[in-house]
Amino acid sequence: MTDQPITLIGAGLAGTLLSILLARRGHRVRVYERLPDQRREAIPAGRSINLALAARGIAALELADVMPQILPLLIPMPGRLLHLPDGSQSFVPYGQREHEVIYSVSRPGLNRILLDAAEAAGVELHFRQSSVDANLHSQQVLMRDESSGNPWELPMQRVIAADGAGSPLRRALAHGLETQFTEDLLEHSYKELTLPADSFGNHRIHKNALHIWPRGGFMLIALPNLDGSFTVTLFLPQTGPESFATLTNEIAIDEFFHRHFPDAAVLMPQLAREFLAHPTGIMGTVRCERWSFEDRLLLIGDAAHAILPFHGQGMNCAFEDCRELDRLLQQHTDWSQAFSAFDRTRHPDTDAIADMAFENYEEMRDTVRHPKFQLQKILSLELERRFPDRFVPRYSMVMFHDDIPYAVAFERGRIQQDILNQLTGSAATLDQVDFDLATQLIERRLPPIAGIRSDA
To answer: What is the C-alpha separation between 94 and 196, in angstroms, rounded?
Structure first.
């Protein structure tokens, strides 16, 4: 399996990580990237500046032996800090164990480390080379040199497309195989802004938390950066009375932020100017019926299954793709079998996390404000303490248990939510919960999860 080179299209996070794993297995690997080398040239804005790294992503990075270089980039976030409309704040922990944290990490910083590691592993990196189309019959990928504008053809032999949510190779694959794919855009868009550090370079709001300003139909979030600043992201409808369509001048922008997010607005002196200068991003979910063609083409990451960012799993899911493909290549000596197995076994999990990401958006912008949600959150942690191998909160299964498939987390989460609804139907506090009923429901409906320990 090592005689023929493997070609990856896309030197983003998934493409570079997979190239490292393949090179470490002894393969000759080459990567083609549309943009310039971001280690040497500034890349135009347009993608999130920082991301949330969790257990699934960490497991894949550890497999590639790059975590020691990445650790200095990480800022732990053990929970959400809610900024409520009345000015009060409420910290909601993600879990109840020391290791149950997620980490804010710089996307460009992480990508640069992966590019360096890929080069060190012997991967060939070719920049300003973009995929345009592919022909499954002639088995050629049409490429373009972005510097000269000249087209050229790449043989379609063990090509893995990690070229993002707008992947031309996904469209070519679906057209060539006469299969379906969907690109469902959210009616909300986003804009990234900056909450700067103080004059001493310190964080001006709590450093170790993911900050959320939930406002029902929209929300603001903030993730910490190493330089003391926060990357602040507004998620807002595209049209309507409270929307991007109405925020077209500095007066309207300042008034909107001071009305809905006054504690953040006073710490952002360049708010309106930044708002007008920064691009407005779109968000959507990509589902694709087929990801592979023989041993010639495979889609991974956002090219195969882009999801909404509201569960912090886009990068983690793509990294898990890399880990899963690496595992399948150990099992199969035939590339077409490995590609087909990845296509077949991975779909249920990516469909599940896509659904959970959408549900988490509704939770983050609205449900977290409600007393019933707060009670159910406390109760879910108590049930986990009492039944550690049976009741694991869905968020914990997704973020902290890389050995629990997304599809299992989705299904068990549905059952657990039904149990929580029954137990809190007439209860307003934890003392009023019927724990005898809880025991009956959990033991009847939630079989033990293999490998979960009471001290996990």
So the answer is: 26
